[in-house]
Amino acid sequence: MSGELKNLTFFVRTFGCQMNESDSERIAGILCRAGAKKAARPEDSDLIIVNTCAVRKKAEEKLFSYLGRLAQIKKKKLVQVGVVGCVAQLRGLELLEKKFGVDFVLGPDNYGELPDILRTSPADKHISTAWSAEWHDTPLDLALHESTVSAYVPVMEGCNNFCSYCIVPFTRGREKYRPLSSIVEEVEDLGRKGFKEIQLLGQNVNSYRDPRSGGSFPDLLRATCRVEPIEWIRFLTSHPKNFTLEIAETMAAEKKICRQLHLPLQSGATSVLERMRRSYTQEDYLEKIAFLRRLMPDISLSTDIIVGFPGESEKDFEESLAVLREVRFTNIFSFRYSPRPLTRASEFKDDVPGEEKSRRLAEVQALQKQIQLENHGRKVGSVIKVLCLGPAKKTPHLYSGRDEGYEVVNFQSADDCSGSFVNVRVTGFGPYSLYGERIPVS
After folding, report:
1. What tens digit of pLDDT does each residue of 356-415 get?
2. Range in 31-40, 370-379, 419-428 the model is least confident about
3. pLDDT (0 to 100) of residue 442
4. Which of the 8 DSSP states describes residue 380?
5. What is the C-alpha to C-alpha distance for residues 312 and 224, in angstroms, rounded to an integer?
6. Which listed residue, of 120, 155, 266, 323, carries a Cα 20 to 30 Å from 305's Cα?
7. Distance between CA atoms of residues 333 and 211, nearest Å
8. What is the rounded distance in angstroms from the CA atom of residue 136 to the CA atom of residue 176?
């Protein structure tokens, strides 16, 4: 396959989560292996691929807005447009309508077909959204990683939970797991290439089971921790109902596993959680937070919050605020509820008015902003370990990285420390990042 597409330039635009970003890296790798060249801008490309997210209505709206902009490019030059990912799986044939200017559509299980599609005539519209129950492994060197420091490593895909609001089981399919030996092999390869950090990815990583040995997620964590060159290991996303004491104990026992966890709450009201089909209560969730902090007092916690779910009363909403005040998350991702097709909740009456959803979202975000300012203020004067990812994008005279808690740290450094662990003394802060100065390692 190498060299077959040597005259092709391509651009990939990614919407959505870390799994989408990881998929885009693999799509870029597939195309480069076939001889294509990556372009910096869509205007400079012969092929534009849009990798999509369908989790929320707003993400879909972004796709259709972007396709409108691409239509202007297609008026000026001959360019193919492909839509891949979750909206491709969901909307399939609809996307191939002439008004969208899309030439081919691929679901998340079909990216390997790209070179064959590109060898056919652009006039031949193509759609492929078939599922496989088996994990498709890819060559170790296939992914074209955006970073040379931190790498995504997919370990499972899909979800069996069918939360009432969530479209993931319909766009990513049922859970399937990557063989543990394959995961470890990729982590070892990344270590040899100089990567300092890996992020194990899946829609529900802590339900992982090695398809060959039956090994659990803690077994996977321990195996990756034995790979010497890698210094930091993270994982996401975790479902609270599958997050066990054994996982927390493994995190506490293994020094390479970052003291950081994203554990989506979604709502602080047990009655709402029940309608969401989350399979835990507020008390269950807080119990898990308690044993995490007992084992790792300094752990950094983040979460997801949905406001305005059908039937959410003001009292329910206040319970979500109460959990935010109690847990004091390092960071949250908060959203207005929007019905998604195929889900059980799409049949519920969407009875919280839009302006009320907006008010609740604003209140959640204001509270969290204040919590983050208070959390950050307590860090001034402390020295933290930071993995430097390179010059800061908005302030190029500074360097930027993340600490073990996955917080953004912008700092001054006398020399280029990209790709290295450095010590930074915190001298200032905002609600979303820390500021500081690099200090010599003692």
Report:
1. 999 999 999 999 999 999 999 999 999 999 999 999 988 889 999 999 999 999 999 999
2. 31-40
3. 62
4. T
5. 41
6. 155
7. 32
8. 10
Peptide bond into 237 cis (omega under 30): yes
What is the residue type of 42? P
Do residues 316 and 272 touch, judged by C-beta distance below 8 A? yes
Average pLDDT of the residues of the chain: 94
The set of residues, in sequence order, having a beta carbon less than 8 Å from that of 276 and lying 6+ positions away, is 163, 164, 165, 266, 267, 306, 309, 345
The label of the residue with tokens 């097709």 reads: 341
Position of tokens 């319909």?
170
DSSP per-residue codes, 191-216? HHTT--EEEEE-TTGGG-B-TTT--B
Q: What is the DSSP letter of 130?
A: -
Higher pLDDT, 94 or 368: 368
With beta carbons less than 8 A apart as the criterion, state whether 203 and 157 touch.
Answer: yes
User: Which residue type does 197 have?
Assistant: E
Question: Which amino acid is located at 29 in the chain?
Answer: G
Task: Give pLDDT, residue 3.
Answer: 53
Amino acid symbol at 439: I
Both structure tokens of 68: 């409108």
Task: Kindly provide the residue ranges of all beta strands, DSSP E only, lying in 54-196, ordered along the sequence.
Answer: 80-85, 104-106, 126-128, 150-154, 156-157, 176-177
Q: Is the pLDDT of residue 308 over 70?
A: yes
Residue with tokens 């498709």: 136
Phi and psi torsions of 281, nearest 5°: -105, 175
Residue 419 has pLDDT above 50, yes or no: yes
Q: What pLDDT is stored for residue 396 in this prediction? A: 83
